[in-house]
Design goal:
With 277 residues, the protein is mostly beta strands. It contains three helices and 24 strands. The chain has a single domain, classed as Jelly Rolls, CATH 2.60.120. The chain has a seven-stranded mixed sheet, with no helix packed on it. Strands 2-21-18-23-15-14-13 form a seven-stranded antiparallel sheet. A hairpin with a 5-residue loop joins strand 3 and strand 4. It starts with a strand and ends in a 7-residue tail after the last strand.
Length: 277
């Protein structure tokens, strides 16, 4: 498991582009036949990618976590981002996930693995795990059953649909929140005007992009912003003190996941356009 450490916003001001990418951009998370994990010191969030082929891939890293099993003190969410069907096996029980379906697995489940229904056409699982203090039931939420929220406009180039999977009014968890935003065709902006939330960090997975598409992801304190150029299936780790907004060369989809102090989706410090620099 790769380790990423937290950064003071004052120190961040001196970072060049290479250092920003090294600390906050996660590349090559989805590798055929492997499971990869990145441990962030921001609220101890773990992000991961798994692409199983001819054998299951087990969610486990005793050496890094120093626990007997992965979910001894954690909870985890899975979303299948591929067109191919996959399964998550939780203590012997299989949950089948189609594209954009979500599965939450609570603290205390000892054996968790992922597999593809067709090894020649592997599924891709995006994985996000946070610390947990109690057990909530394992629950699947297909995208067909998720309640959509429509925001933005064509005039603002930010017409989008938000699906909230794991949150206070959906799948229950200790602190993990997880959902997905789909931008409509010809719309490229997300979360603009931006916001920060000092009580939670956030991770962004950008996907459903072709090889030539890019997202310019903006971060930093509102009065001193930076950007990263992001390709398909890459993750941004966003600190609590940072804005998190992006614009793409065409429409795209992203999965947002949060962990931290509180469990209120609307706890945001809104930033006006006049405050951005």
């Amino acid at each position: 498991m790769e380790i990423r450490y937290a950064t003071n916003p004052t120190d961040f001001k001196s970072y060049d582009g290479e250092r920003i990418r090294k600390d906050f951009l996660v590349e090559n998370l989805f590798t055929t036949g492997e499971i990869k994990l990145v441990y962030s010191h921001y609220d101890r969030l773990i992000t991961g990618g798994a692409v199983p082929t001819n054998k299951p891939l087990v969610l486990d890293d005793k050496e890094t976590l120093k626990t007997e099993y992965f979910l001894e003190r954690r909870e985890v969410g899975f979303i299948n981002i591929s067109d191919n069907v996959g399964k998550v096996i939780v203590d012997g029980e299989a949950y089948e996930l189609n594209k954009r379906d979500c599965l939450y697995v609570g603290k205390g489940n000892k054996e968790v693995s992922v597999e593809s229904v067709d090894a020649a056409n592997p599924a891709k699982f995006y994985i996000v795990s946070a610390l947990a203090h109690t057990n909530y039931p394992t629950k699947k939420l297909p995208i067909a059953d998720a309640v959509p929220t429509h925001l933005g406009s064509d005039e603002g180039s930010n017409k989008r649909t938000i699906y909230k999977y794991i949150h206070e009014d959906g799948i229950q968890s200790c602190q993990l929140m997880m959902g997905m935003t789909l931008l409509a065709p010809n719309n490229m902006w997300n979360t603009m005007p931006p916001h920060v939330h000092d009580r939670r960090m956030e991770a962004y997975l950008y996907f459903d992009m072709d090889e030539e598409s890019r997202v310019f992801h903006f971060m930093g304190q509102p009065d001193d912003t930076r950007h990263m150029v992001v390709k398909n299936e890459q993750v941004i780790l966003s600190p609590p003190w940072s804005i998190h907004s992006g614009v793409g060369t065409n429409n795209y989809t992203f999965i947002w996941a949060m962990a931290g102090e509180n469990y209120t989706f609307t706890d945001m410090g809104h930033v006006t356009m006049a405050d951005l620099k």
